[in-house]
Each structure stands twice: as structure tokens, then as C-alpha cells.
Amino acid sequence: MKADRHRQDIYSGQDYEEKSTNQASSRTTTQHQREIRRQQIISIVIFVSIVGVIVGLTYLIMMWQESFQDDGDTVRNDVGTKYLSPAGTDLNDEIDWVRDYPTTYADPTWDGVGERPFSAQWIKKAAYNIHWAETATRMGINDKEALKSAAKYYEQALEIFPDIEDVKPPLANIYLQLERYEEAIVLFENIPEKERTHNLLNNLGIALTTAGKYEQAETCLMQALEMQPDYAAAMKNLATLYKEQNVPTKAIDAYESYLTVHKEDAGTRYAYGLYMIQTKDWKRAVEQFRILTEELPGEAINYKLLAEAEKQLGNTAAALAALERFNQLTESSNK
């Protein structure tokens, strides 16, 4: 009996240990599950917080943008959205630029007497004209009607604000393209020094040359070259100026300087060679037309002029060869 009781005590101890082990394992599992749930709750809270921040920022941005829109009752800053649209597609009418303001903000009327009111309304009137002037200028590269329209818009902008900057130079260039030389000259001469670029001085030189005001033209072109010594357009126009003045020595220097840099300009080389024929400088004429016949072997007129120059220098064989080539090209073009 004692032995049996002893055995029973041993077995009962094992049951106790097993139960203790099972209970410990159960507690560990429960703690692990609680930790997982805690991490899940933390993740959900963080996610919800981030979404809330994003929604809040989006709302604030929308409210900020709405604050820049014109509600019709108050004057707001609408510069970036409607008045100065990059495409300009919604700015067809002046009303899109110039709104009716409350009388306490700006007087919308002006009868033309006294000083023009300096208000947002008149600034936008000027901007409206400048916008369409620039648009018409881009369209008017080969369209005189568009250029006339651009000139009108620029003129209206200057009427609103005569001292506005960066309007006279493009308007003067348009006058030049429209061959309104006297108007271009007057406008150029009234452009402030700080707005006079080498391009502007070059264009004024062209207008003055065309008008026969050679001394003023030379001054402008020389100033352009002082500002930019390698300015090819000014060199070329200076050569044209001296040719118009019939000053061969200066014209030759200007042509040579230009053609040294721009050897490929066949049109200017032709003008130079033709001028040398006119001044009976046969040697330089031969030099230029030999180059032209090599670069443009299909141009008949160059051979005819080369033949004339070669003949004047006594180069009979060369003159006959050039004349023969001229006849061949002429016959071929007539077939």
C-alpha cells in the first residue's frame, strides 16, 4: 500500500508540472497576441493621422487658391490665373483683363483731360494691348497685316503709359519691317540709353541708312560694334552704309571683315563683287566671282560677271571660259 501511495504521489507531481508548463505557455501566447493587437492599433492610428494631415493640407491649399479668385464684389489678385494666362486663349476681350471696379478702388472713367489715372485698371489696359501686340508680332513674321495690328496695340499701350519700358524697341522694329522709317527713327531716338542694345543700335543704323542720314547711321553702327565687336550684322550694315555713301575704301574693309567670318554668305559676297565691278576694282571683282562660281556652279549670272571682270584684267582665256559656261547654263535653263 505504501508503495502504491508512493507511486501515486510521483504521478500526481508530474501532473502538476505539466499543468504549470501549459499555463505558462498559455500566458506567453496571450501576451504575444496582445502585443500584435497593440502594434496593429498603433499602425492604424499612424495611418489615420497621416490621412488626416493630407486631407487637411489639401483643404488649406484649395482655400488659399480660392482666395485669389475674383468673387465679383471685391478686387483680388488674379494675375496668375486669368489676366495673364500663358496661352492667352481666354483673353479675347478687354473685359477679360479690365473689370469694373468699385468706385472706392479706382475711377473707371477718364475723359482725356489732364493726367491719365494711374490705377490697376489702366495698367491692365496697357497689359492687354502689350499681350496682343506680342501675339500679333509672332504671327506677323511674314504677314504685314499682323504687323500693322501689332503696331496698333503697342501704340495704344504707349498712349496709356508713354514712359512704359520695353515697348518702344519692339514697336520701332515693327516700323522698320513696315518701312515706316521716319517713325522708326523718331521712336528709336526717344528710347532711353539703358534700353539701347547692340541689336537696337544696329536696327536704328539700318533705318537711318535707308533715310539717307549716313552720319547718324554710322554713329549707331559703330556704337553697336563697340558693345559687341564681333557683331556680324553691324559689320554687314556698315559695309552697305559705306557703299551707299560711295566710300570704297571703308566699304571694302567692312565687307572683308564680315566675309572673313561669314564665308558662306553668298548674297553678301555677290553684292560685294557687284560693287567692285561698279567701282572698276576688277581684281577684287574677279576674286569674289571666282569664289561664287566654285560655291554655286549652277548660277549663270556669276559666270557672266566673272567673264566681264576677267576681260577687263586682260585674262582673255579665262573670260571666254566663263562666258562659255554662262551660255551653257542659259541654254540649259531655256530648254
Largest sheet: none
Return residue spans where pLDDT drops below 50 for at least 5 consecutive residues.
Answer: 1-13, 68-89, 99-108
- Helices and strands: which structural class? mainly alpha
User: Would you count the extended β strands for me?
Assistant: 0
Give the overall average pLDDT: 77
Q: Per the principal axes of the C-alpha atoms, what is the gross shape?
A: elongated
Distance between the termini: 144 Å
If helices are DSSP runs of H or I spanning 4 or more residues, what is the number of helices?
14
Helical proportion, percent range: over 70%
What string, H for helix and E for strand, traces the elements in order?
HHHHHHHHHHHHHH
- What is the gyration radius calculated from CA atoms? 43 Å
Essential attributes:
mainly alpha; 72% helix
Short account of what is shown:
The protein is an all-alpha fold. Helices cover 72% and strands 0% of the residues. The radius of gyration is 43 Å and the shape is elongated.
Furnish the topology, listing elements before pairings.
Layout lengths: L1 H65 L12 H5 L36 H20 L4 H17 L7 H10 L3 H9 L8 H13 L3 H14 L4 H14 L2 H14 L4 H13 L3 H14 L4 H13 L3 H19 L1
Helix pairs in contact: 3-4, 4-5, 5-6, 6-7, 7-8, 7-9, 8-9, 9-10, 10-11, 11-12, 12-13, 13-14
Provide a descriptive summary of the structure in words.
With 335 residues, this protein is mostly helical. It is 72% helix and 0% strand. Helix 5 (168-177) runs antiparallel to helix 6 and helix 9 packs antiparallel against helix 10 (248-261). The radius of gyration is 43 Å and the shape is elongated.
